[in-house]
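User: Hey, quick favor. My workstation is busy. Could you predict this chain's structure for me?
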Amino acid sequence: MRQGGIRMEIVFLNRFEQAVGRAEPERGQVFIGEHQGIWSAGWHPIPEQGPDNQEIWYEGTSWEELLASFRHGVAGKMKVGFRPLLDGMLEDSPFWERRQQLASVLQCYADHHGSEEKVAPLRQWRRAKATEEKRSAYLIATNRELQLVAVFVPRTPEELAQLPGFGKTKLEKYGAELLELVSSLPREHEFPLQWVENAVSEEQLEEWLFLQKEEKYGKSVSLVQEKKKLLTGIRQGSSLADLEQELGLSRRMLVERIDRLDEEGYDVLPIVDQELASVAEGEIEQAEIAMKELGDRYLKPLYQRLYSSEAAGGGQAEQHYERLRMIRIRYRRKRTTAAV
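Assistant: No problem, here it is.
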């Protein structure tokens, strides 16, 4: 197969067809190819219509980025009605052999019948609750869970428990407040919710599912690209402040990403050493002693031992946790090196 005049070796090829509403089906192929260590993935129509009609989803050396881009592209084609000759690129079994769980049907229905006006008070409640508990908002309730509550309007804890995401802990902690928030909303249907399976057509559900896949793999592409930029910045000696500006991420998110990169085996010590250069050696030693005695899996016990006596505000606590993550990365690397 040729791309831009260069012949590449094809390692994967699959034909797609879009037949709905057409006298003659529209056809195309997805491909993954390689030439001299450079990977390519994309789409070209059948019959060939020249290079201007070919879509290149990825070209580079990263297999991880290639797969994310390929899956995102495939999901986009399936969303608009193309179906593969050989299925299974996004799922373990063909769509027509998979029995969709009620949770997916409920979410599809809610997305088609949602109202921002009804969800807005729930989002406001979640923001206040997250601030009160000093937790991320999505740990209180996800956007999708709030949407389900606003659309199906449960009246009792038993009804709320029928919505995906509301298990025993969340019900006990937030159920009463959520039910109170939607108590004045009108409701035109009843529980249990099995009736929704007949209210959502196969075509609606199919289109919705592929839209979710497209969004999911689109996020994967963004994360892979972000990871690549972060690793490049670390290698080039960038500081956290530099990376904040370049990537548009908060300092907290950057430190969490760096921590994750370390767990994946990447060398992040250059930025760790740079950020710890201004930290007193005594503080680092005390932190390492605490990690040895308490373990290094959880940061909260370490924070409580080292900093609980300080009257730390929210910003200072955030700074302490950031410091502990950086110290923990170096501590783990020292321990690994010593064991070799």
